[in-house]
Specification:
This protein is α/β, with parallel strands linked by helices and 241 residues long. 38% of the residues lie in helices and 27% in strands. It has an eight-stranded parallel β-barrel with strand order 1-4-5-6-7-10-11-12, surrounded by seven helices. A hairpin with a 7-residue loop joins strand 2 and strand 3.
């Protein structure tokens, strides 16, 4: 299992939100590039970078910062937030972004998902953000009536490279992940699943390691506040390999 530090960018700052609410924001750094270098220095092999302004508005707002991170760090990057057309995907992939995350676009436009998966095989991830088991979209501002596992099963068929599964109720709350929901998602599909939301202690990492075939885990709030030491978490996953 790969431990993936999160860098959420809003108004040019590195921030964390509670339960995805844009009015519940905490600024942790004015320099997302420096933050990326810190996580790289602690042993991270992948960065999870989200343009929160893009997620809320549907248009990328922090692309320049994201591309500066790409030029600065040597490790892999997966990027999401407001990516809803082929031009945006192409620009990111051409700049060296390893995986591109679709959210609302994957829910709204299946033809677009098929097109980008065919053009960039293995590169497209879909973020499935769930509230009470249903898919949330548009920066978590709207909750659909579609079951998250049903949606995962459907989009797997179009050739996506993996799923990032987030339990909104746990995100940014340091309340431990929804292990049952994560395991159910892993067992629903045959593609990599990355868990997100509430991962805040070494005990949480150990619990996630017990989920067979879970590919990765994203942590944000915990490594910024210090409740989880990123270097220790990475070391723990390596010791179980």
């Amino acid at each position: 299992m790969v431990i993936i530090p999160a860098i959420d960018i809003k108004d040019g700052n590195c921030v964390r939100l509670k339960q995805g609410r844009k009015d519940a924001v905490t600024i942790f750094s004015r320099d997302p590039v420096e933050t990326a270098l810190i996580w790289q220095s602690k042993g991270a092999h992948v960065l999870h970078v989200v343009d929160l302004d893009g997620a809320f508005t549907g248009r990328q707002k922090n692309l320049d910062i994201i591309l500066q991170i790409r030029k600065t760090v040597k490790i892999a990057m997966q990027v999401g937030g407001g990516i809803r057309n082929l031009v945006s995907v192409d620009k990111l992939v051409s700049a060296g972004i390893n995986r591109v995350i679709l959210g609302t676009a994957a829910f709204d436009d299946s033809e677009f998902v098929i097109e980008v998966c065919n053009r960039f095989p293995g590169t497209i991830l879909v973020g499935i953000d769930a509230k009470d088991g249903n898919v949330a979209i548009k920066g978590w501002q709207e909750v659909s009536e579609i079951d998250a596992k049903e949606f995962a099963h459907r989009i797997q068929a179009v050739g996506i490279g993996g799923i990032i599964y987030t339990d909104i109720a746990r995100d940014g709350m340091l309340s431990s992940p929804n292990l049952q929901a994560i395991e159910e998602m892993v067992n629903t599909v045959n593609i990599p699943v990355i868990a997100s939301g509430g991962i805040s202690t070494v005990a949480d990492i150990k619990s996630l390691l017990a989920i067979k075939n879970l590919w990765g885990a994203i942590t944000g709030q915990a490594i910024y506040t210090g409740s989880l030491d990123l270097r220790e978490a990475i070391r723990l996953t390596k010791s179980t390999q």
